[in-house]
């Protein structure tokens, strides 16, 4: 007997729906909210309104793309948190309504756990236990993953996320939002000849707010001396900032691998699209004998396929919730 799950993700600014059958992704549809580009960041109120508009077409699109009918859906998985509460409410309410109308079981999913399990949407899957560095606009975490639903955060940011460090730097340089991909592209033409300090944070935790401040002071000082400094050195500034963000991430990941003795190393989240981070991980992996895993971009950024994959493993364990479930802004894995 096959098991078909409708999955819904609405924790931040992407509205996404997927159909997952027996642990394989049949479809994965996402509506991005371009409105936030106008403001240089995600505006929560605008995000929840856009989810409200996007959710029905996205769910219908996912069902159509999977080539199934609604009656074939056996369960509904949804992101309960962590995330923006106004955004989560839209997805959670939709999932509850859909499940109620068809008398289907509901599966709550932790968004951070789902980022990790996105690896199981791919043909090449990491072996347990593995380490996963999840890096996006909202998260920076290193986890030990012992089994599908058994994972532990062993390091995380104490302030900004890695993606925020890219995006906030972009704002200082007058780049569009989100700036991560733009900095990545510009950095390819530049030299990392400006040095920014690496924060001295104990253990496996990260900090990016000190870096942000040092970039700001550096730019202010240089612009005071030469008003054209940014325009004349843009590619080099991008290369320098990117090199530092990547080295902060890889140093902690290497430390985690050394401390745990684990050599299965995975990357997840939107920032894993970064070319320097990807090549840096692969180089480190070759040097240290790691097996490295990076999901394709569609499964790195926020998506419902990862929610459906997590939902599948929770279904197998009989982990369901009732209609009284409500979203949560904070939720540890
Ligand atoms: O996972 P994601 O789509 O959404 C969440 O934040 O959950 O990640 C978005 C983040 C943004 O901060 C964006 O600037 C960053 O991922 N990003 C990148 C690249 N592509 C996306 N950062 C650096 N280099 C990239 N190529
Ligand atoms: Zn995310």
TrEMBL record:
Where along this sequence does the record place binding of Fe cation?
Answer: 111, 115, 302
Q: Which UniProt keywords apply?
A: Acyltransferase, Cytoplasm, Hydrolase, Iron, Metal-binding, Transferase, tRNA processing
Q: Which SUPFAM superfamilies match?
A: Actin-like ATPase domain
Q: Name one GO molecular function term.
A: hydrolase activity
EC numbers, comma separated:
2.3.1.234
As for subcellular location, the record says: Cytoplasm
Task: List the InterPro entries.
Answer: ATPase_NBD, Gcp-like_dom, KAE1/TsaD, TsaD
Q: Name one GO biological process term.
A: tRNA threonylcarbamoyladenosine modification
> What residue intervals traverse the membrane?
none
Where on this chain does substrate bind? Answer: 134-138, 167, 180, 184, 274
Cofactors (names) = Fe(2+)
What reactions does this protein catalyze?
L-threonylcarbamoyladenylate + adenosine(37) in tRNA = N(6)-L-threonylcarbamoyladenosine(37) in tRNA + AMP + H(+)
Pfam family name, one: TsaD
Q: How is the cofactor bound?
A: Binds 1 Fe(2+) ion per subunit.
Location of the Gcp-like domain: 25-308
Could you state one GO cellular component term attached to this entry?
cytoplasm
Task: Kindly give the NCBIfam families that the UniProt entry links to this protein.
Answer: gcp_kae1, T6A_TsaD_YgjD
The text of the family note is: Belongs to the KAE1 / TsaD family.
Q: What does this protein do?
A: Required for the formation of a threonylcarbamoyl group on adenosine at position 37 (t(6)A37) in tRNAs that read codons beginning with adenine. Is involved in the transfer of the threonylcarbamoyl moiety of threonylcarbamoyl-AMP (TC-AMP) to the N6 group of A37, together with TsaE and TsaB. TsaD likely plays a direct catalytic role in this reaction.
The protein here is known as tRNA N6-adenosine threonylcarbamoyltransferase
């Amino acid at each position: 007997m096959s098991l078909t799950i409708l999955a819904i993700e609405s924790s931040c600014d992407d509205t996404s729906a997927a159909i997952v059958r027996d642990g394989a992704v049949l479809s994965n549809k996402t509506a991005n909210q371009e409105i936030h580009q106008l403001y240089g960041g995600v505006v929560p109120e605008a995000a929840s309104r856009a989810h409200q508009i996007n959710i029905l077409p996205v769910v219908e699109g996912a069902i159509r793309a999977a080539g199934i009918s609604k009656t074939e859906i056996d369960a509904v998985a949804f992101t309960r948190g962590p995330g923006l509460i106004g955004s989560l409410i839209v997805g959670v309410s939709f999932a509850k309504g859909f499940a109620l109308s068809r008398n289907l079981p509901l599966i709550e999913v932790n968004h951070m756990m789902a980022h990790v399990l996105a690896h199981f949407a791919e043909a090449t899957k990491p072996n347990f236990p593995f380490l996963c560095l999840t890096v996006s606009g909202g998260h920076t975490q290193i986890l030990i993953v012992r089994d599908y639903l058994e994972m532990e955060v062993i390091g995380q940011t104490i302030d900004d996320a890695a993606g925020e460090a890219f995006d906030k730097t972009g704002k200082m340089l007058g780049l569009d939002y989100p700036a991560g991909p733009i900095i990545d592209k510009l950095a390819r033409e530049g030299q990392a000849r400006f040095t920014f300090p690496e924060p001295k944070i104990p253990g496996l935790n990260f900090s990016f707010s000190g870096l942000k401040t040092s970039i700001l002071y550096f730019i202010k000082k240089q612009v005071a001396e030469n008003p054209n400094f940014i325009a004349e050195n843009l590619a080099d500034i991008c290369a320098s900032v990117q090199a530092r963000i990547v080295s902060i991430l890889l140093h902690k990941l290497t430390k985690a691998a050394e401390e745990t003795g684990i050599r299965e190393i995975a990357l997840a989240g939107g920032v894993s699209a970064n070319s320097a981070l990807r090549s840096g991980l692969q180089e480190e992996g070759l040097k240290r004998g790691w097996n490295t895993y990076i999901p394709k971009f569609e499964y790195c950024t926020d998506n419902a396929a990862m929610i459906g994959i997590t939902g599948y493993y929770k279904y197998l364990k009989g982990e369901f919730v009732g209609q009284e479930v409500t979203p949560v802004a904070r939720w540890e894995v």
